[in-house]
Amino acid sequence: GWSRSKQMEEAQGLKARNADKNVAVQGVIPGNIFKDLDMLELHFQGLEVFQSEWTVDEDMFVLKHFGMKKTAAAKIENLYNGMIHKLQYTFTKEGVSVDDLKKRFEDLSNPQQANRSELIKMFLQTESRAEREAVGTLQELKTQDSLSNKSAEDSFSSKDATIEVRVVGDRPEPQIVMAKRKPLLDQSDFFRTRTASIDLPNSPAVVELDVNDTNLKAVKPFQVLSSNILERVFKVCENPQIVEKAQVLEDELRELKERIDNKYDDNLKGLHRRREEWVAKAKLKLVDEKESLVKENEIEFQEYISNIKNAFDRRLEKALALRERQYQKHLDDIQLFFSTEEELLRSWTQRVKIIEGERANNELTAYKNLIAEIFDKDVTLKLALAASLFQISALEDACKSLVSKNFMDYIDCKEWSSDLIKEKYHRELLPALSTWEILELQRLEPPQSWLHKDFLKSEIAQRRKIIRQELEEMNNRELHAITESNHPFPDLVEAAVSKRNSSRGMGALNASLKCAHIRLSNSNSTVSVIHPQRFAPVQGIVHVVCGSWGRPYYEVTIDHLDAAFGSTCAVGWDLKRESLANFPIAGLTCGEDGVSYGVSIQNDGFVNARGKAEFVGFSFHQNSVVGCGLDLANSRAVFVVNGKTIDLSAAQEEDMRLQANCAFVPAATIFAARLNSQCQVTFNFTGPFKFEQFFKDGRWSALADSKSKDV
Hints:
The protein is α+β, with helices and mostly antiparallel strands. Helices cover about 50% and strands about 15% of the residues. The chain contains 19 helices and 18 strands. The longest helix has about 70 residues. The N terminus is likely disordered.
């Protein structure tokens, strides 16, 4: 504690000099600094000093230079001799060598001396920290002293450095708030016009606000012109971008961490790649050397007689073993080198994270503290009113940002009913809320919520319009998923489903022809196999006739298909049948006339047409999407597998040409190979389709829109 006495005396001198100047400078020398300097925390613990022939100061010297500072051995002896001349009563051992001091340090490390060592170390650490704090406080006071002098000179040289704002009309005594002139006039057009007369001769730097003034009556019920609110307003004028800077710093801190992590990952990948390259080169070198040795041995073996072959073989084994050991040593060196490099990279990255992260966190904490000082739940909307009244855009942006971040915390504030912010804040902040939150707010009444019902109603109407359009653009599968979820507007979902069923609802599978091996779901558009090891055919309701006009198109999504164990799926166009009892496969099973066939594509890359299967190479699997189109005028089928139209030869296209004047329906045949196989496909007859961009001529249309339908 006594090591701070000199700094304390100098700090008290600075405080006295500032007091003698008779200049009122706000915030130059906070009183809590001297309060902290006057505080001293003492710890007492008894030491059995006389049980040791070494004094406490000598033990402190040993622990400080051997344990804490790691002083060089050559300097320690000279330092000790110097302490003997300075403090002869506490440093009593003349002629002490470095070895004696080192031995004393080892003795202090023994368990018998643990209590004495720990107490002395704690005192050394406390003394070092106290010295650093005293020096830092002294430096801060010197800086503040210079700022005090400069501020005092400025106060004498410029009479209008501050403006006195008086609020009158609501209390017997006026409320007085001091504000710095320059930031206030820079930020507020209101005060800029009110202070136009201050520069006139003999004019005091005072602005008077009468709460009964016509321009100020709008905020009188909300106590905006109180000293508490005005002080916060003036602080925001001095720091107009505090909220924005805090958010920018949060983003910079997050981006900094991401950049450091990405850099670390890239460097680590580079090290791993180089290590693999070096290992590969070492292996190639080993192979080349082995091959060279084998060739040399074979040449020598041919030159010598057969009875010395064994000797050469032994020499070869030794050479190969030597090369193997050399390779292993080389490999170990490579691993050691790259392990060291990786550790260096990791330590560097961690160091950068700590330094940069601490800097950004400190700056962010400062801004957050300033925000907490100015803004809280009870005054944020009052500040918004003040921002609108005084035309301070920075304050208004800050209030909007804070309210939008935690909107539900401010709905019980009466300031929502003020005409200054009512329309602007409702229209700008309500779109950021979820639909469920808007519906919940519509049900709340004051004092739970002061939000205006008309704005909530307008926002809900706009969202209903958007959601109605989204529901109309969904395909059957997506719309079915919406019906099974908890939707905020169930009436819109019900209306969309009703409209879909009435206008395009014929795009479904024919449940009357369903065999016992399958189950239909999702409005009869999804088929699942429930009895495996059997062929399970299915057909659609809508039929089209080849030879007429049109290009109907539909898509099939392969939800589940156990193809690795022999399960198959064929999709395409089949003849309209009265029964599926013979388990037909489109393209392989002829129609009831005995000569006509459909066409289909299988998951293994085969196309079935005219009673035979031909491999075309376009296979599909689970999660694939297969598009099936039919050019009725040309009686030609088109298949799109995962966005690619299959290419066929002229002969194959001719085989896929269908019989004219025959009715065709969408069809699929699924075979589940195992008892626990999951085979399921979903038909989309109505659109929108995933691969509509492939039909840019505009002549393709959804199958559900075709005129020929069987109900």
